[in-house]
Design brief:
Number of strands: 27
Structural class: mainly beta
CATH topology of the largest domain: Jelly Rolls
Strand content: over 45%
Order of helices and strands: EEEEEEEEEEEEEEEEEEEEEEEEEEE
Radius of gyration: 25 Å
CATH class of the largest domain: Mainly Beta
Number of helices: 0
Oligomer: single chain
Shape: globular
């Protein structure tokens, strides 16, 4: 939430006022009218109190300088759909007769087909990278055309897969009888709670054939599941992580447990994962003088800002890989350079990497300072 709305809602019965965000999650209340401008979350000079809290009664945080802490949502992965699948952002896979995963008229349709263990699947081509203290939020518009399909399970959420088997993450699922469940997955171990046992604002939910907004907010210390802005269930860890990794994809799957005559279908109108926080962190740098076979600068997700190069010898080559080894996807390569004693900069404007960052300087000497986060 990047800012408070610039208006207040007044409770005509009590005279209290509440400021809300566009998502209706943050409320500011003053216990009587006409008390002036609040300067902190504590008691005002005239004795009135100001409270900033979300729908779970968590109180807003302020710095010692009386600045309110806010977060700025940032899209990590996922896009709207057009006339066909954008292979740069999405990966579609199928297995078995009549299975399908495709896009038409701005809607993705995923079908299991009729084969035993057949499936259709659509996942983002990249994972959303998690940083502690910045929860990730999965949000999708999902429609189930037929809620009961024999021997078919449909899943949607923020999770990784091997084939069509969930590996890590969080998801909604609908079984063959039409029972909705919420799940957290750690490696391949799953913990599932079905409708009727939910611990949110409602204890049960029945899926219909209309489109609904499904949302999962997750981080190290919990996962909250919402449907149409109503809290359905929340998981809290005790002695083990809810998910071995929170670096996950948007994933939508429909998979059979046996062969059948009817294909299980799920429609996804749009789906994304956003980070509740800015994409920018404090940058790091590494200075390398001379050749190096493989200098691992970072493991995991990050951003490459640029590099400064100097004293290049003839045919020296600088290469940066999206990997924890000197192989795989190249983020940037200088090519064979001519001798040059004049330093120069390369602005890479925040090129993302997902696996890691590895530097090589080969063939001949060169100096390079790599700036990344």
């Amino acid at each position: 939430m990047s800012r408070l709305r610039d208006f207040f809602i007044r409770d005509e019965t009590s005279g209290d006022r509440a400021g809300v965000t566009a998502s209706k999650n943050l409320q500011a209340s003053i216990d009587e009218d006409n008390v002036g401008l609040a300067t902190s979350a504590k008691q005002l000079a005239d004795g009135h109190n100001v409270t900033l809290k979300d729908t779970f009664s968590y109180v807003g945080q302020f710095t010692p300088m009386r600045d309110m802490k806010v977060v700025e949502p940032f899209r990590m992965v996922g896009t709207s759909f057009g006339a066909s699948i954008d292979a740069f952002h999405w990966t579609a896979t199928t297995s078995g007769a009549s299975s399908a995963s495709g896009v038409a008229n701005s809607i993705a349709t995923i079908s299991s087909g009729t084969a035993n263990n057949g499936y259709g699947q659509l996942i983002t081509a990249q994972q959303a990278g998690f940083e502690f203290a910045h929860p990730l939020q999965f949000r999708a518009a999902i429609r189930i055309p037929d809620t009961t399909i024999a021997e078919c399970t449909r899943r949607w959420g923020a999770f990784n897969t091997s084939g069509a088997v969930p590996q890590d993450g969080f998801c909604f699922s609908l079984d063959s009888a039409g029972l909705l469940s919420v799940t957290h997955i750690s490696a391949t171990s799953t913990t599932t709670v079905g409708s009727g046992s939910f611990n949110g604002d409602v204890s049960e939910y029945t899926v219909d054939t209309n489109v609904h907004a499904y949302e999962i907010v997750f981080f190290t210390m919990g996962a909250w599941f919402f449907i149409d802005d109503v809290l359905i269930h929340k998981f809290l860890p005790t002695t083990a992580l809810l998910s071995t990794s929170n670096d996950v994809c948007v994933a939508i799957t429909s998979i059979n447990s046996a062969s059948g005559t009817t294909s299980g279908t799920i429609e996804c109108w749009t789906a994304i994962i956003i980070k509740l926080g800015r994409e920018i962190t404090s940058p790091n740098s590494w200075y390398q003088a001379g050749t190096v076979a493989a200098k691992i600068l970072k493991v995991g997700f990050g951003t490459l800002h640029g590099l400064a190069v100097s004293d290049t010898a003839n045919n020296s080559v600088i290469t940066l890989y999206n990997n924890t080894a000197a192989s795989g996807t190249i983020l940037w390569s200088s090519g064979a350079m001519a001798p040059n004693t004049v330093p120069f900069n390369v602005n890479l404007r925040g090129v993302p990497f997902t696996i890691g960052l590895t530097l090589t300087i080969a063939t001949a000497n060169a100096n390079a300072t790599v700036i990344f986060e």
